[in-house]
Amino acid sequence: MLMRTDPFRELDRLAQQLMGPGTWSKPSAMPMDAYREGDQYVVVFDVPGVTADAIDIDVERNMLTVKAERRPVAKADDVQMELSERPLGVFSRQIVLADTLDTERIQADYDAGVLTLRIPIAERAKPRKISIGAGSGHKEISG
């Protein structure tokens, strides 16, 4: 149902830790899980510290794009930062969805820093029985 589009994700993650936060033109990758649950395909993204209005979900044909931006928290003028390890900036993930998924009915939920997308399996892709009718004999085609 899902094709992996980034075989060098770990290498990219290490490079981005060294190079700094992501920008809209060069976003950092976000971790995800993907699995089938009954008649739905579920994709779960970790985006802690991001508000729901800072998440952008787009589908164009069978390409799903999720972008999120973690913005810095406003601090008072007299605050001196001692340690800053939480990454800020833009995070993004693109995945190619199979044609057997119904991209018109995607449901998105966001709770406790976890974005969950539920994508139904298209009716045409579900298994079905084909009944065999009683034939009325052989028919000839003449031309």
Task: Describe this structure as you would to a colleague.
The structure is a single chain. The protein has one helix at 9-19, and strands spanning 2-3, 28-29, 32-37, 40-46, 55-60, 63-70, 89-97, 107-111, 114-120. It has 143 residues and is mainly β. Strands 1, 2, 5, 6 and 7 form a five-stranded mixed beta sheet that branches. The relative contact order is 0.23. The mean pLDDT is 81.
Notable traits:
five-stranded mixed beta sheet; elongated
Order of helices and strands: EHEEEEEEEE
| Low-pLDDT segments | none
Quaternary state of this entry equals single chain
What structural class is derived from the secondary structure elements? mainly beta
Rg calculated over all Cα atoms = 23 Å
- Count of discrete alpha- or pi-helical segments spanning 4 or more residues: 1
Could you tell me the strand content as a percent range?
A: 35-45%
The termini sit apart by 45 Å
Largest sheet entry:
5 strands, mixed
Q: Quick one: how many beta strands?
A: 9
**What global shape is seen?**
elongated
Helix content bin: under 10%
The overall pLDDT average reads 81
What is the secondary structure topology, with strand pairs?
Elements: E1 2-3, H1 9-19, E2 28-29, E3 32-37, E4 40-46, E5 55-60, E6 63-70, E7 89-97, E8 107-111, E9 114-120
Parallel strand pairs: 2-7
Antiparallel strand pairs: 1-7, 3-4, 4-9, 5-6, 6-7, 8-9
Nutshell version of this structure?
With 143 residues, the chain is mostly beta strands. It contains one helix and nine strands; from the N terminus they run βαββββββββ. Helix content is 8%, strand content 36%.
